[in-house]
Design a protein that fits this description.
By secondary structure, the chain is an alpha+beta fold. It has a single domain, classed as 3-Layer(aba) Sandwich (Aminopeptidase). The chain contains five helices and eight strands, in the order E-E-H-H-E-E-E-H-E-H-E-E-H. Bound molecules: coenzyme A (COA).
Length: 176
């Protein structure tokens, strides 16, 4: 996905406030501070800044972001293995949560994942993270396992959740 392949989305607030525009694009090196800020605002145990510096130059990793005006409102980090796409991180700034941004990022991934024959998207989620699990279930992810003591900060277990790309989705016009 290139610099100019961002997609705009308009949202009308329930109060009838002016429409806001979102733009989805791929992250680049200049985003490292904004990515780290977003990570620290969204996660209780955030990745360090260096992790973003490394991911931004890793040829296997992609970071998609959503901009709202001048602000970086959401991001998703993922990478492709021969067998599957793995979502490593997804976070929406608290000011922008519950507006469908995570849904947009994941739906885009589900749409493009079949390119190259990938039929499986996988991720780990804290067993205590109910809202994220709800989001994933809503998008068709199911639990596929549990990793004990997965998180270093508190020794919490992770659920592995998997979304299989169906034949019908492959046959959609944007499918692979
Ligand atoms: C989890 C997270 C990414 C969701 O982002 P979001 O853009 O607010 O999610 P969406 O608006 O697309 O919500 C889609 C669905 O997810 C579920 N959901 C999202 N936030 C929720 C909340 N606070 N409580 C309950 N369900 C929630 C709901 O089913 C929601 O659908 P609905 O609004 O129609 O009820 C966001 O809360 C976040 O950044 N959390 C902190 C970081 C994190 O936990 N990341 C996941 C790591 S695995």
């Amino acid at each position: 996905m290139g610099e100019n392949s961002g997609r705009n989305r308009s949202v009308e607030s329930a109060t009838g406030a002016p429409k806001r525009r979102w733009r989805v694009r791929e992250a680049h090196k200049d985003d490292v501070d904004a990515l780290h800020l977003l990570e620290t605002r969204g996660h209780s145990s955030p990745w360090p800044r260096e992790a973003f510096e490394e991911e931004l130059v890793d040829e296997h990793t992609k970071i998609w972001v959503i901009e709202s005006g001048a602000r970086l409102a959401a991001m998703m980090v993922f990478w492709r293995t021969p067998a599957q796409v793995e979502v490593l991180d997804i976070v929406v700034d608290p000011d922008f949560q519950r507006q469908g941004m995570a849904t947009v990022l994941l739906e885009m991934l589900i749409a493009v994942a079949p390119t190259g024959g990938i039929r499986r998207i996988a991720l780990e989620v804290r067993v205590s993270n109910d809202r994220a699990q709800k989001l994933y279930r809503k998008l068709g992810f199911v639990r596929a396992g549990r990793r004990p003591d997965y998180y270093e900060d508190n020794g919490e277990d992770a659920f592995v959740m998997v979304r299989t790309i169906t034949d019908e989705e492959i046959n959609l016009p944007y499918g692979g």
